[in-house]
Each structure stands twice: as structure tokens, then as C-alpha cells.
Amino acid sequence: MERRSPSSPPVIPNATAPVRQRKLKGWLLLLLTGLGLGAGATLAVPRLREWVANGQRPAPLQGLPTESAHEPPLGPQPRPDGPAPPGMVWIPGGTFRMGTTDTNRHFFDAPEHEVEVGGFWMDETEVTNEQFAAFVKATGYVTVAEQKPTLESIRAGLPPGTPDPPPEVLVPGSLVFTPPPGPVPNHHSYWWKWVPGACWKHPEGPGSDIAGRMNHPVVHVAWPDAVAYAKWAGKRLPTEAEWEFAARGGLVGKKYVWGDEPPDEGGKWRCNIWQGEFPYLNTKADGYVRTAPVKSYPPNAFGLYDMAGNVWEWCSDWYRHDYYFSSPRRNPTGPPSSFDPQEPNPLTPKRVTRGGSFLCSDGFCSRYKPYGRGRDEMDSGQSHVGFRCVKDK
Ligand SMILES: [Ca+2]
Prior knowledge:
- By secondary structure, the protein is of the alpha+beta class.
- The chain has a single domain (about 1-55, about 75-393), classed as paralog of FGE (formylglycine-generating enzyme), CATH 3.90.1580.
- About 15% of the residues lie in helices and about 15% in strands.
- Strands 11-10-9-12 form a 4-stranded mixed β-sheet. A 3-stranded antiparallel β-sheet has the order 1-4-13.
- It starts with 17 loop residues before the first helix and ends with a strand.
- The relative contact order is 0.22.
- The chain binds calcium ion.
- Calcium ion binds near residues 126, 306 and 313.
């Protein structure tokens, strides 16, 4: 079996308003780092447990229409007349097998089951820095990672008696993949680092910028940031089922989004993933250590780029490990709330991510395969998580 995915950094979970949570998370991470504790220790604090138990859960998504027992199966839907929305391709929808029977799967990637999705337009690439910059310029939007914590918001979420954090840690920031100098124990805290000042404009923190990376996928966007962009663009996030249907490109039972060939067959890489020894040695055989410009690798059969690797992509669904056991057949929109048995008491609920990132590899995290499910706390931006949008016809 695979080891734990690098998509789950040691974020400190939290509860209600994403803004407040983000700051608390960052400060807790610093505090815990200083105390030499892990995230699990935080959850042992009774007050936080109570907070988790009473934590607000956002209302369920208002879903797309679901199945009717008397409706005929959905077949592929013809592309609407007229020009495609700029940068989008038509995904015809239809019936497919979602999930996998792969023996090397995670338990939450099964059972394989039949799902129908309607047709929709999908961004051919991940949302780029250039596109996100246009959104910010037009709206003045400030991402979760860029918002400064307040002492009051942090006090409100901590156990009584916890000392106030020093003023210098009350700064915005985000989680940055930071390779250690050599082999380390298999725990994500060794390669994820809370970096004050890290955000979409400064992907590795202060001193880094996106000049020369405007055609790379935007990163350090939390789920609410992605939703805000989609709304501004007149689009929405894909459901997990739509995402997987699109990733498969009409292929049936194939291992990868391009077919069954290994990612580097013929000596030419088909996606931006990790080569070498994770997490300390990346041979850069695919050309990139971190994000790659969108369209650096061939598209899948639907004309979609980077549906494997580069960055994880937010979906609209809540994450539940067992959703496939109760998923409706037609246009599933996810469970009404989130639950992850591998981290049962997060203070922030989780949303699904898909597609894997530049940190994936068969040796470490093979979830860049079309069925591979990811999930992250919805207020958490990271240096390997982005998104793309869809649009109804
Ligand atoms: Ca991707």
C-alpha cells in the first residue's frame, strides 16, 4: 500500500469562520512546532474536542438534480451550438464506472460503482496565476492565506490558560512544501512548513513571486477562494463525479488519464509528478520540481490538461471516505457533511480534491490516477493545491 499522501500536511484543524480558523491554524502550528508536538496532541485538549463536537457544519450543498428510477440512462450529450466559452471544452457526460478495483487503491477509492453525469463545459487548464490576478484586480479579493489574524480570534479558539501568541506570529501565511536535506521519517511534518507571508503571489513565501509563472496554476487558494473565483467567472467548481468523468477522457478501465502506459514510457513524461526519492531528492526528470506551466504535457482525450499531477484541484463535494457506498447514480453532489476516519476530529470540515500534484509518484502517492481521491480542510491553501472550473450549458 502507499504511504500517506503528501496532500495532507500537518494543518491544525479548526471550526467556524474560515478567516479566523486560518490564523489559529497557523499560530497553532508554530506553537506546536515550538513545543515539539504534533497535530494529534492538539486534539487531545478537551476544550478543543468540545469545540469540534459543537463546531458548526456548513449547510449541505444544494445539489444538481439526482436520479429518478424511471428515467432512461444518461447518454453523452451533444455539444451546445455556438462557440465554446473561452478556454473551456465540452465534456459530454454519460455513464461511467467511478472508483476502482485496483488492488493498490486506498479504501476510500472503492467500491467501483456506476455513475451518470450530464454534459458540462470544463476549463481546459487549471486556473492560472494570470487568471487569478485578473479576478483579484477586478474585485479586490483577499485570499484566506493573505488575511491577518487577530488576537481575539485566536483566543476564542484556544483552551483557557493558553498563553497569547507573540505579536510576531500574528501574520498571514500558508503551508509550503519544503524538502528536507536528506531522508526523514515518514511524517508530513518533515516536509510541510508554515511560512508566514506565503500566499498565491508569493508561493514559497517572502522573496518569492509569480513573475515568470503567470501561466502556472495558482496555488495557496483555500476552497472559499476557489468558489469566489468561480462565481466571479460565472462558473462553478466541478463535482467529484464530474471531475473523474472528465479525467477519464472517455477511456474505460484505464490506469491513467492517458491510458495504461507508464507516465514516462518512451522517455517522455506525460504529467508533472515527483521523480527521485521523496521528499528530499527530485531528479526533475519531467522538467519541474514544483508547478509547471499549464499545457506543458499532452491533454487527455477530452482536451483537458494536467488532469494528472501539477496541482490538486478542489471539487465542490464534502469529503466522506464511505460516500461511494451511498452515492446516488445520477449527478452525485457529495455527502451532506464531511468525515475522515483517518483524522476524525478536524476542526475544519474537508472538501474533496482530485488529480494529485507535483508531489505524487507511484512510490509515494499514486493518487494522480483518475480514481484517486484527495481531501483537505477547506480553509487550507497549500503550495500544491489549485482548481479549475466548470460551467453548465
Ligand atoms: Ca491537476
